[in-house]
C-alpha cells in the first residue's frame, strides 16, 4: 500500500510540474510575442517578408527543417546572429514552444518589438508546410 501511495504522489508531482511549466511558457510567450498555431504560422510566413529562425540544435536542423529557416540554436543564441534584423518580423520555432519563448525573451531585451515576434505553438513537429529533409 505504501508503494502505491508513493507512486501516486510522484505522479501528482509530475502532473503539477507539467501544468506549471505549460502555464509559465504560455504566459511568458504571450508577453514576449504572438504564439500562433501551425496553420497560421505557415500563412504568415507566406505573406510576410520575415526571418524564419530554427532555435533547435544543429543536428536536428541538419536532418530536417522548415524551408527557408536559418539555424540559430537557443543554447548559444547570443552568438552568430549579427544578420538578424529587428525591423522585420521574426518567426521562431524549436522542438517545443519553450525554446522559442526563451529566445523571444532575449530578443525583447534587445529591443525587438513584441509585434515583430511570432512563435510556433507546439514546435517543429506541428508544422505541416514545406520542409527540407
UniProtKB/TrEMBL annotation:
Residues 46-133 form the Rhodanese domain. SUPFAM superfamilies: Rhodanese/Cell cycle control phosphatase. It comes from the Bacteria. Gene3D superfamilies: Rhodanese-like domain. Keywords: Membrane, Transmembrane, Transmembrane helix. Pfam families: Rhodanese. The chain crosses the membrane at residues 6-27. InterPro entries: GlpE_sulfurtransferase, Rhodanese-like_dom, Rhodanese-like_dom_sf. This is Rhodanese-related sulfurtransferase (PspE). The lineage of its organism: Bacteria, Bacillati, Bacillota, Bacilli, Lactobacillales.
